[in-house]
Amino acid sequence: MARRLISILAVALFLALPSVAAAQETPEDIVASLNAYWSSVFAQDGLPYSPPSVQAVTGPMNSPCGPIDVFIAPGAYCDANATIYYVPGASVDLGDLWTVLGHEFGHHVLNELGSPGHSLESELTADCLGGAAVRNAVESGLLSPGDAAVGMRLTIGSGDSFQPVNGQVPHGPGNFRSISFSSGYNGGPSACGVGL
Ligand SMILES: [Zn+2]
Q1: 57-91 in b/e burial notation, b at 16+ Cβ within 10 A?
Q2: Which of 54, 107, 120, 150 could form an SS bridge with 77, CB 3.0 to 4.6 Å?
Q3: What pTM was computed for the model?
Q4: Residues 107, 54 contacting (CB under 8 angstroms)
Q5: Could you say which DSSP state residue 191 is in?
Q6: Which has the minimum average pLDDT: 42-51, 66-75, 119-128?
Q7: Span from the CA of 46 to the centroid of ligand 1 (angstroms)
Q8: How many angstroms does the Cα of residue 41 sit away from the middle of ligand 1?
Q9: How many angstroms is it from 182 CA to the middle of ligand 1?
Q10: What is the pLDDT of residue 10?
């Protein structure tokens, strides 16, 4: 019941925010905005921040972390080369694109903080950090609350389980993912338990 209430409150907050937004529509724009956001968050804490490399994936390719498969996920992050991979066109809605890139930047933030690796816990933390970045985009007028709600639905809809799925690290069920996303959206990076 409490979780359901949190979700309802989160949706209400989405709807209550102003709807004027000068949308940033290209992945390059969004990457630049996410780098600006996280570099300012790190700077507030006196921490250095290096942007990730960003690679568009248009077919099967390898990374130091193994093969990148465009059919498994619209985005991926490799700690070893600090690179975000994304599939152009896989995220049709702007909110989806912000959410996918926001999540992968969440992994990069963890890597920058010295906590690389993929686990259920780090996936949920990446959702939280993504939520914080999406909220900042809404408050900065870069994304409408409606598009942010679309991204929230993507997080709910792309949940899986607590156990590895086909050898992949689990992201957690959709309601857990959405609670983590909402924590970051409503509370900022300090709600994500990473010391920022
Ligand atoms: Zn992830």
Answers
A1: beeeeebeeeebebeebbbbbbbeebbbbbbeeeb
A2: 107
A3: 0.86
A4: no
A5: G
A6: 66-75
A7: 26
A8: 21
A9: 16
A10: 46
